[in-house]
Amino acid sequence: MNKKITYILLLLFCSLGVFAQENLKDLNLSQQQKELLKEQKQLIKKNREAFKATLTDNQKAILADIKLTKQERQQALKASLTASQKQILAQNKASLKQAKVNFRATLTKPQRQRIKARLKRNKGQSRNNLRNSIRLKRLKKNRN
């Protein structure tokens, strides 16, 4: 159930993409840029935990319901959000957007080019990897 909650939250809190997962050495980031990324990662964690703390038992049950497809779970969860939860998500989105703007402002032209090339090269890969891992988990679960 925790993994499903995390999965849904990751979809809600998409930010810089693959920075945390890939090797950043080829970008030659400055210490300031590394700190900004570290702060952003901590912000994402803090926001995720704050949102998870507001989930009701009913909402957790929606996320844990394997009878629903991923899209149905997302729609059901979105429909069940309270005004305060929607406000939390909006605030989280705004703070992440500002953090992205702050980070992008520190990038040099060569860094931007490398990031753009890497994102183009990896387009859709993380989504496909996620889909495949979910399919494998469901297959294993169905076999048991």
Automatic annotation (TrEMBL):
Keywords assigned: Coiled coil, Signal
Region feature (Disordered): 110-144
Domain of life of the source: Bacteria
Keyword Signal annotated: yes
Signal peptide: 1-20
Keyword Signal: yes
Coiled-coil segments on the chain, per record: 27-54
Compositionally biased intervals (Basic residues): 111-124, 134-144
Descriptive protein name: Uncharacterized protein
Organism per entry: Tenacibaculum holothuriorum
